[in-house]
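Task: sequence design from structure.
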């Protein structure tokens, strides 16, 4: 069973603070002996709890008794009650740092992360060399999303970090969030040779995949392919990483191998269908999704993924049939109506698209995809005032949706009216916030790079355009932008190379090229 971060912290605190339980007998016990031993411990714990409560009544100002009672309650997983007694002990003796650390562990378990952080910071103010508290504060900071603090704190106690896969993963995750991929990769190397290597490598691969470092994830999964105890789970995660790394043929091979081993689940066939989609193999795509649907006919996602795959290939007629079948099976699905709306938007049947998106919003007002679809439909229908209101409403209702922010920025950027200084600042703010929320969207980096180039900020433009081209090598306009930028910077040879890439991509796109999208105009 995977050890959660909170359970890990609690376990470590038990070791570091020497609290809760008496040392266990080291000899190996039979099942019946172990059961009897646990029962004995429970009885002894209850008896001691009674004694501690009685002692606390006799000496209400003695902080050791509520501290001990809190430890006993925490060992029984009665965390709310344990926290109250730890708090009482600390009111009597604020400098009892072991109890304060135990309280921080309880808060962590209870999901009260700011309170856990506050107590750990109090300890470190008094004892800055307390390595255990530094370690725990680093992990709490990572869980709070304060990746910079997490990386700094965990980096200060590397020997402790290196002892456990969970802390190694936390530090690597912090580095990935900070964009320090090389440091994250070096951190994951600490997993090599760990006693629990196979599980540690698996978790490390997942951390790398979450950080967008798919090649590292692939390497880590491959390193344990013959040893991992659950080949079905390993191969699915490997295939996901290969798909995300755009290694679609490898993804296909991995999934076909898993199917041959008897692991052909609905999820496996759905991912195989998406791999075929990227390889423009429509018959195989349809066959794979048919199997996925037949294996799990109640899973709406398979219908939606098939519809989106067909829409991506502009196979509107078949996509619409899928959308109608999805609505027949799931008549109250907001996502199904959104799919229908997106197909109608692609077909420029804007009145029907507006109806579908409106129905989706009626079914689920919190469906950000439907809200965005309605705004895009209004924009494409040249209903700019209505679209502006829908976009503005959407970014306020869904401030954490990076794609919505990007699309609103594009709407403002392509306004028929000349953008004034305030509007340009708003566009930049929307794009920057979108980038902060999700830095994996190539379009966001392209637009930021394009704006920087217009302002002759060549270094900033180069950084953003290179990221865009790296994240989506088939994004022709990113290479065109780089070609223009290189020529401006006097790098004619690099500019010529990017022009050649751009021309090849335009030939590859052929008749399916969307000229509006290539110019950064309206998007579906």
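Answer:
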């Amino acid at each position: 069973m995977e050890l959660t971060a909170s359970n890990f912290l609690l376990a470590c605190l038990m070791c570091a603070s020497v609290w809760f339980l008496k040392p266990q007998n080291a000899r190996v016990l039979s099942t019946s002996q172990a059961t009897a031993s646990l029962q004995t411990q429970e009885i002894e714990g209850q008896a001691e709890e009674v004694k501690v409560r009685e002692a606390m009544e006799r000496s209400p100002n003695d902080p050791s008794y509520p501290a001990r009672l809190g430890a006993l309650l925490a060992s029984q997983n009665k965390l709310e009650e344990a926290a109250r007694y730890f708090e009482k002990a600390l009111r009597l003796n604020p400098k009892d740092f072991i109890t304060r650390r135990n309280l921080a562990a309880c808060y962590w378990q209870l999901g009260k992360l700011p309170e856990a952080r506050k107590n750990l910071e109090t300890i470190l103010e008094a004892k800055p060399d307390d390595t255990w508290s530094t370690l725990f504060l680093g992990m709490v900071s990572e869980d709070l999303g304060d990746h910079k603090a997490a990386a700094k704190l965990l980096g200060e106690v590397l020997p402790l970090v290196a002892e456990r896969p969970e802390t190694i993963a936390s530090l690597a995750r912090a580095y990935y969030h900070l964009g320090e991929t090389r440091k994250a990769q070096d951190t994951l190397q600490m997993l090599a040779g760990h006693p629990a290597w196979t599980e540690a490598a698996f978790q490390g691969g997942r951390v790398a995949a979450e950080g967008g470092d798919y090649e590292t994830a692939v390497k880590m999964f491959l390193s344990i392919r013959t040893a991992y105890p659950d080949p079905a789970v390993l191969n699915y995660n490997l295939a996901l990483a290969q798909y995300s790394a755009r290694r679609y043929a490898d993804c296909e091979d991995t999934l076909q191998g898993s199917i041959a081993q008897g692991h052909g689940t609905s999820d496996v066939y759905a991912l195989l269908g998406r791999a075929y989609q990227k390889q423009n193999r429509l018959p195989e795509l349809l066959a794979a999704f048919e199997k996925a649907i037949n294996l799990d006919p109640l899973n709406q996602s398979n219908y939606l993924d098939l519809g989106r795959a067909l829409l991506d290939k502009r196979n509107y007629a078949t996509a619409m049939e899928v959308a109608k079948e999805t609505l027949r099976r799931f008549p109250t699905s907001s996502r199904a109506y959104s799919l229908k709306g997106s197909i109608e938007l692609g077909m420029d049947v804007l009145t029907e698209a507006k109806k579908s998106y409106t129905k989706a919003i009626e079914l689920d007002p919190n469906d950000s995809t439907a809200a965005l679809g309605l705004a895009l439909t209004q924009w494409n229908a040249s209903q700019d005032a209505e679209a502006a209101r829908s976009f503005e409403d959407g970014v306020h209702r869904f401030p954490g949706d990076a794609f919505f922010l990007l699309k609103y920025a594009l709407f403002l950027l392509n306004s028929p009216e000349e953008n004034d200084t305030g509007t340009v600042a708003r566009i930049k703010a929307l794009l920057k916030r979108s980038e902060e929320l999700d830095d994996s969207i190539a379009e966001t980096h392209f637009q930021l790079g394009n704006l920087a180039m217009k302002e002759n900020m060549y270094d900033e433009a180069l950084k953003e355009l290179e990221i865009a081209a790296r994240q989506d090598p088939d994004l022709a306009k990113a290479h065109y932008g780089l070609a223009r930028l290189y020529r401006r910077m006097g790098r004619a040879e690099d500019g010529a190379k990017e022009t050649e890439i751009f021309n090849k991509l335009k030939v590859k796109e052929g008749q399916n090229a969307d000229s509006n999208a290539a110019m950064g105009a309206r998007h579906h």
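The longest helix spans residues 31-58.
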